[in-house]
Amino acid sequence: MIWSILCVFETTSGLGHMRRSACIANYLVEKGARVRVASGTFMDKENFFHPEIDFVELPAHRIWSSKDGKWFHYEANGRKIEDTNFDENKWKKKREKIFRRALKQEPIHAMVVEFWPFSRRREFTSAVNIVLSQKSLPYRPLIFSSARDILDTSNSMKKTANQVAKDQRKSVKMIRDSVDKVLVHADPALVSFAEGFAYWRKIEKKAIYTGYVVTDNAREKMGDERDIRMVVVSTGSGSTGLDLIKAAAKARRFSTLRDHNWTYILGPRMEKSHKIQALREIARFGNGSQVGSTAVYNHRADLPQILRRASLSISLAGYNTTLEVLASGVPAILVPKFKVRTVGKPWADAEQKGRLHKINAKHLATFVYPSTAIKPRSFAAKIDRAHRERVNRATLNFEGARNSAEIVLGQVKERFGDQHIHDFAAEEELKYLYS
Question: What is the pLDDT of residues 301-340, one digit of tens each?
């Protein structure tokens, strides 16, 4: 029996949603499912997705910049493009048309929707409704909501408490009406979903903690391969990574690790002007001596393997990087996504701060506030301490991808038994021919 599953995601500035979707989709394939993945923000497919996965290419995901008052999107190479003549209605209709065509070509047993309905409603609500109207099976396809541990995002910081509550009530209604299971990619031993979602009790019966989603490479045990002189600085997608790169470069000269080999990974979505600034800062501050190398990369799909070999990781604390750091066991400094402001303390991401407070309390990594990171001597002291001190090895559930795939297929088998999509399609065709 081959089960047909559709996974959908969109990213905004980061890559976390794609990475989680890819991990789950890959495991579904390994377990024998026929998998398609739909998105308008694919990147580096050959490195992140199983070769047997088919892709449904949607119109590029459009993002509204309130700062600039403009729409923009990212190309597959990470380049940011302004959309001066963007028509949202046409964009939505084109996406709907592609979804309908994909379902007509091959109906599905289940759909796994990343971050919906807690967010991404503009992108995926109509797609879910199209799936629910599918008539190729005696039972409607299953809908799985796929969510990270903490929902609070940068956008939430611009909402009042009443607005957040209203938004969460909408999520509850949509889950009640359309969702079969909510896959919470977390371990409650670290973070409880209820802490960021006030109406947890109303969805609790449909929710399942899967564990954290990380790649297999991040979880593999290391032998004696760790490079005791390798420091890795990474920023995830890089869209907000310039300030961390500059901070690390400036701190290096004051660190006892200045003569180590430093690797900077800028991120594929760092803007070109920011990359130029980053390279200048790295070259300008160097390490103060001729000992120790400096390497700079735009993107490394093998970051989990690199982390497992490093003696210290310094990174922005997005979901994927944070959990890969914890799974690898590398000594680490984690800084929430931040932006330096001309007046006052740097802005920092609420979701990432919330997770880091939990990690810091369990002494799993070193949490550095942005206000400390931008002071070279203070940051250098934190770097030295993180390298010197031993932290607790994380014993969290990192099997989120495998568990999610097993839950999805288990639910599909329970609902559909031995019934096959194409058998029903043929049956309907015969009814039509002989009616």
Answer: 888 889 888 999 999 999 999 999 999 889 999 999 888 8
pTM value?
0.90
Domains, the chain: 4-212+398-434 (3.40.50.2000), 220-388 (3.40.50.2000)
- Phi, psi (deg, nearest 5) at residue 192: -95, 130
Alpha carbons 322 and 125: distance in angstroms, whole number: 30
95 backbone dihedrals φ, ψ, rounded to 5° = -60, -45
Residue with tokens 């550095």: 368
CA gap 184, 71 in Å, rounded: 31
Round to whole Å and give the CA distance between 311 and 50: 30
Name the residue among 252, 188, 383, 226 with its Cα closest to residue 305.
226
Q: Strand pairing partners for 110?
A: 5, 142
Give the E-state strand segments of 49-121 in sequence order.
Answer: 54-57, 63-65, 70-74, 80-83, 110-114
Backbone torsions φ then ψ of 93, nearest 5 degrees: -65, -40
Structural tokens at position 199: 């109406």
